[in-house]
Input
Amino acid sequence: MIPMVKLSHEDVLKLARLARLQLTDSEVTQFSGEISAILGYVEQLKSVDVDSLMPTSQVTGLTNVMRKDDMQNYGPTPADLLKNAPATKDGHIKVNRMLA
Amino acid sequence: MISAEIRKKYTVTIGIECHVQLKTKTKLFSAAGNDSREAAPNTHISHIDLGMPGALPVLNEAAVELGMKAAFALGTTPQKFSEFDRKHYFYPDLPTGYQITQFYHPIIIGGEVRIEVDGQEKIVKIHEAHLEADAGKSIHPPGKDYSLVDLNRAGTPLLEIVSEPDMHSAEEAKVYAKELYLRMRYAGVSEANMYYGNMRFDVNLSVSTNDVLGTRSETKNLNSFRSIERAIEFETERQIELFEKGEKVVQETRGWDDAKQRTFTQRSKEEAHDYRYMPDPDIPPLVLSDEMIEKVRSTMPALPGEVREKFMGLQLDSSSVDTLVEEMPAGRFVLTLLDSGCKTADVKRVANWLTSEVQALVANDKISWETAKLDVANFKQLAEMTSSNKVSSTGAKAILIDMVQIGGSPAEIAEAKNLLQVSDEDEINDIVKQVLAENPKAAEDVRNGEAKAIGFLVGQIMKASKGQANPSVAQDLIKKQLN
Output
């Protein structure tokens, strides 16, 4: 039996704000259902006892992967990289006005 | 303004978070250049700093070494295990969408900094310190509907040092911040150039009338010792005023307006971010072996506390000690003289020259400490010439000023400037005879026990000898001739 978690419209709007997404009213309704179902699944997973286990964030077993403190030419020039910016001005990346 | 009486009822509690820019050639996770002080915007960037799909960040070993040095500088040992996490938030100067930091397992846990305030020693404990990547810089041209982003600073390695809330006044906080600044410079962790924003401070402050901590505000991005002091004074007043009016302090992030000398609301707790921290799967953990840790420990230079004690041993006044500790080239020079077996009295004399005459030249932009000609042999010679009366103390200062600006041996400068002092009694005796003959009235006054007259006669002898007679020898000879 999956315990029911119901996400409110406000919860969905907050998530959307954090993810910088604009949702229509029908999308809010749609995601409130879909995300609630995902959370329900997570609730189900939570019933497994993992107290004695460490969370996994690395699977390679590597440690201390480091490089020397020397400059390196990766290939793409700053100009190449700036081509990916939505807009530029005088070498700066131009974005929608932020609150100063 | 809050009266002193009301103020006394309140305890102020302060904790400080300090961001230190590490002295590396490249960024924390990319091999793009790290020194963008005078660089054009977006010229020190790579696909890694811009968070391009598939970019793989690789940790800079120099930043790790500086983090280890910082641990020793903060009176502790680096953690054997540390790890990097992603701190998520959206802002145009953070192209990856997350900052890489050490949230769960920082490289430094604990430590302490000793400070002295009003002659009282005090310990400020360190909670933790972690490595993290800086964000870019945004500018907001006035009157425009856009902002501009420069990512040169994105990815610059920082060490964030978080203190325990162990400070209780603006003065304590300022002294602590200054001590961190000195330690980071002495340990070679950072250039610690305040002008370029190499150190930035966030101040957490609350007031309370009992043992329970009050609600705190956090004033962010203070970049001078003075602004730390002023922001704390302002916040203390503001919070006490709220209490006195029966209102509540709101937990919030505040900024500092340097022009208006006041803090202002930036973000309240309700708007606080949910950072969704998670270990960064791109960056394998850092596991420091005993060998790596000992290697760094063995290269640690002397820290400000140790150096300060050596200067105190010279019986200098406290402001001279402060100058020598703060002006590292001057301090290093004094230590070199000490190590070279120079007599303590001579070292003390040199230390006083450096902290007064030479410091004045630096303050007036005549020279900088980096360009001043500080030569051990020359300074030793000048100190010896002064203590053996070959030059007067005034003459020595004139020689000193040439010596540090142009260089050259003090004996040659003294000769060229005619500053060698005559201490030879026969030579001075002739002048004394002449001056006494020319000033019979003053001579008579001296015979009658008038002390003032002897000063006048010494002055005449100095004039007649063009400043080269040793005044104390002259004085002795006047007395001898008149008795």
User: Anything to note?
Assistant: Chain A touches chain B at residues 18-20, 55, 57-58, 60, 62-72, 74, 76, 78, 81-82, 84, 89-98, 100 (CB under 8 Å).
